[in-house]
Amino acid sequence: MPDTMFHPTRPLPYGGQNITEADVAAVTASLHADYLTQGPTVAEFEKQFAAYVGARCSAASDACAAAWAAQSAVILSYSAL
Questions:
Q1: pTM of the entire predicted model
Q2: Contact 59, 70 (CB under 8 A)
Q3: Does position 1 have pLDDT exceeding 60, yes or no?
Q4: Which comes out higher in pLDDT, residue 77 or 46?
Q5: Once rounded to an integer, what is the mean pLDDT over residues 55-81?
Q6: For the residues of 11-76, what is the DSSP string, one character each?
């Protein structure tokens, strides 16, 4: 069996991450800012994310349930048209 395959006695492989010093500095700056969960940093992230995926706009969420509720509301409002 190849090493990449699941085996019941071995843990699943972990993907890892690539966190740079710039990432750490950005998080630190956000933690020291006046806004932690809203404000200009989130607005800038939404703008850059929308540009990255080719969308007109985007909305950040701190929780999957909140994002799901917002998505459902948008879908329902469009389906009512």
A1: 0.59
A2: yes
A3: no
A4: 46
A5: 84
A6: PPP-------HHHHHHHHHHHHSS-SSSSHHHHHHHHHHHHHHT-S-----SSHHHHHHHHHHHHH
